[in-house]
């Protein structure tokens, strides 16, 4: 830390209780009261340096020969500052440091210790040292912290603004363009691990390395909220990257908001001020700090991580922040919801009337905002012309909405076990996602299954209404197999699943036989058992032809497996239909033969084709004739 020594005399004062006495041997002729401290001094050293003391002593109405008594309760810095000023007036050695220079500069201004009374007076000396302080990063931080001790004087003298400006310039400077460390001071250049070679050259490992962009975060977090806010505004005006500003705000928030460092859990709802914060600030002060942090966050999308924004939102709910603050955070999260992760969306319900375990209404608002700001891009893109490969590669406008669809399906699966979750609220959240945003409906099917398991009292109509949220045609093979055996689903939905699965199997089998017949027609010699051209000439069959033969063998095995699966599914359907007589006419409508024979495209007749399927009960389904 930089310092400057003023004066040449040794100590000339001693303290007795609440009184400072001069040891020069001359009786004091002026007594100055500062707070609870009394200073017994002499008029001449004070008159020659301070315009205020000169005027006050002249106005003193004390009798001749009696000591003049003055009161200076308004001096910046109080008795501690006046003690240093008194020593300066008597020529006693004092040491200017970053801790006392601001206080002394304000006290000198208050006492009018300018050059009009003496060359090299205290105001000039303090200004010279302040210039040295502003060139040093850590000294500037220390000096800026002391500005709050003397209230308005640093603002009137522009000390705080000059200090903040110097800090902002250093924070925005590129350390690679200057000799590091830019904080100044010889102590910063020392490296305890330095290795000096025999010829005096310092090895490369011992040389100080340029710091990362976050080198100033910790020092800035030592400032009070008001000063830190001004520093952030200063670095923003000087063109600092929004990412660096957001990172500094995150660091500052984690220093003073203990809830930001806790995991998402219901234990957070039991939070009481326990004195675990660094500064032990009250809940009201934490709420004010959080609202200021939210206001300082950069508005650019993606600059602040969704994880931090959601933690801020959860903390704002616990601290009962203002509605505008929570709305601001919800909109920020909604703008980049596709970057969030499921665990951060599980925000415990902090309302006074807790209906559900998690705050589903908050997620509903966030999701609505995401859909609203993405409507323009989604409306200009036709989902019908998006190729599947392009969708999975993440190069089209549907990728964010697809990511959010998977996120919402996972969220629904997490909140579905809550027995207090009502069906309309579950449906409302799931219905926000458009049907084309889900390449597969396995996620929403899993959420529906969990909800049905946790709510066994739902009526059949409510179950069917719930199952309309999914498209049975978009279930994977694994999901279809599970749904066909799921007793919690309505029978109508199970029939739909079996129908579309059979339709899918028949289409696959027809495709395999079509490819097989096409290749056989292109190679008639293989069907007649004649040797090929390669066999006559004695040449070895190419590896490609052998691979094709192997593929044909695997193809036939797959066809047999599909036929077996089709037969098994028909048998399962037959068992389900027998359980309910009202569905006795179902096999005729689905086009099954009277006897349950294995499906075989080669033996099928035109008259045996299936009649139109029953009216679909799931979104996006179509009948057999349209397919």
From TrEMBL:
It holds the Pfam family NPH3. Residues 596-627 are annotated as: Disordered. The keyword Coiled coil applies. The keyword Coiled coil applies. Pathway: Protein modification; protein ubiquitination. InterPro entries: BTB/POZ_dom, NPH3/RPT2-like, NPH3_dom, SKP1/BTB/POZ_sf. Residues 214-504 form the NPH3 domain. Transmembrane segments: none annotated. Keywords: Coiled coil, Ubl conjugation pathway. Residues 552-579 form a coiled coil. Residues 28-98 form the BTB domain. Residues 596-608 have a biased composition (Basic and acidic residues). PANTHER family: OS12G0117600 PROTEIN. Belongs to the NPH3 family. This is Phototropic-responsive NPH3 family protein. It comes from Prunus dulcis (Almond). The lineage of its organism: Eukaryota, Viridiplantae, Streptophyta, Embryophyta, Tracheophyta.
């Amino acid at each position: 830390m930089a310092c400057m020594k003023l004066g040449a005399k040794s100590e000339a004062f001693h303290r007795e209780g609440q009184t400072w006495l001069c040891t020069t041997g001359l009786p004091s002729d002026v007594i100055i009261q500062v707070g609870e401290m009394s200073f017994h001094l002499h008029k001449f050293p004070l008159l020659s340096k301070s315009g205020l003391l000169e005027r006050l002593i002249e106005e003193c109405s004390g009798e001749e020969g009696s000591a003049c008594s003055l009161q200076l309760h308004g001096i910046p810095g109080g008795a501690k500052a006046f003690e240093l000023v008194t020593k300066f007036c008597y020529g006693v050695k004092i040491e200017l440091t970053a801790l006392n220079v601001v206080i002394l500069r304000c006290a000198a201004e208050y006492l009018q210790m300018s050059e009009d009374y003496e060359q090299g007076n205290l105001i000039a000396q303090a200004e010279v040292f302040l210039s040295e302080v502003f060139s040093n990063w850590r000294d500037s931080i220390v000096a800026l912290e002391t500005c709050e001790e003397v209230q308005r004087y640093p603002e009137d003298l522009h000390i705080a603004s000059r200090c903040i400006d110097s800090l902002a310039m250093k924070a925005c400077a590129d350390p690679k363009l200057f000799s590091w460390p830019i904080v100044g001071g010889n102590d910063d250049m020392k490296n305890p691990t330095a290795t000096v070679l025999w010829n005096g050259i310092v090895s490369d490992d011992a040389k100080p390395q340029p710091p990362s962009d976050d080198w100033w975060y910790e020092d800035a977090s030592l400032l009070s909220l008001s000063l830190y806010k001004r520093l952030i505004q200063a670095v923003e005006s000087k063109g600092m990257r929004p990412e660096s500003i957001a990172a500094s705000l995150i660091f500052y928030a984690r220093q003073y908001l203990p809830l930001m460092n806790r995991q998402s859990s219901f234990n957070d709802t039991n939070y009481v001020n326990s004195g675990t914060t660094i500064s032990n600030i009250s809940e009201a002060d934490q709420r004010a700090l959080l609202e200021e942090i939210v206001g300082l966050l950069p508005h650019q999308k993606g600059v602040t991580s969704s994880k931090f924004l959601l933690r801020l939102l959860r903390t704002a709910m616990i601290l009962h922040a203002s509605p505008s603050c929570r709305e601001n955070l919800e909109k920020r999260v909604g703008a980049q919801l596709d970057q969030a992760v499921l665990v951060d969306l599980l925000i415990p319900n902090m309302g006074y009337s807790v209906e559900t375990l998690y705050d589903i209404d908050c997620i509903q608002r966030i999701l609505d905002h995401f859909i609203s700001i993405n409507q323009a891009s989604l409306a200009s893109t036709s989902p019908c012309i998006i190729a599947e490969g392009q969708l999975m590669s993440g190069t089209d406008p549907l990728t964010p909405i697809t990511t959010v669809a998977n996120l919402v399906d996972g969220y629904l699966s997490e909140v579905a076990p809550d027995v207090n979750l009502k069906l309309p609220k579950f449906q409302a959240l799931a219905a926000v996602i458009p049907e084309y945003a889900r390449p597969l409906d396995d996620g929403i099917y899993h959420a529906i299954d969990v909800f049905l398991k946790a709510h066994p009292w739902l009526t059949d109509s409510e179950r069917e209404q719930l199952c309309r949220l999914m498209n049975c045609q978009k279930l994977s093979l694994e999901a279809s197999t599970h749904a066909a055996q799921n007793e919690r689903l309505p029978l109508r939905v199970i029939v739909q699943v079996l129908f579309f699965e059979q339709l899918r199997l028949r289409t696959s089998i027809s495709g395999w036989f079509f490819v097989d017949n096409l290749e056989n027609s292109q190679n008639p010699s293989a069907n007649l058992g004649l040797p090929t051209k390669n066999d006559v000439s004695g040449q070895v069959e190419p590896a490609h032809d052998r691979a094709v033969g192997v593929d044909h063998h695997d193809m036939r095995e797959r066809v047999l497996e599909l036929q077996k699966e089709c037969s098994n599914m028909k048998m399962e359907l037959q068992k389900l239909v027998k359980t309910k007589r009202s569905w006795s006419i179902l096999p005729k409508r689905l086009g099954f033969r009277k006897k349950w024979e294995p499906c075989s495209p080669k033996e099928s007749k035109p008259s045996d084709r299936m009649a139109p399927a029953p009216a679909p009960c799931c979104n996006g389904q179509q009948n057999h004739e349209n397919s």
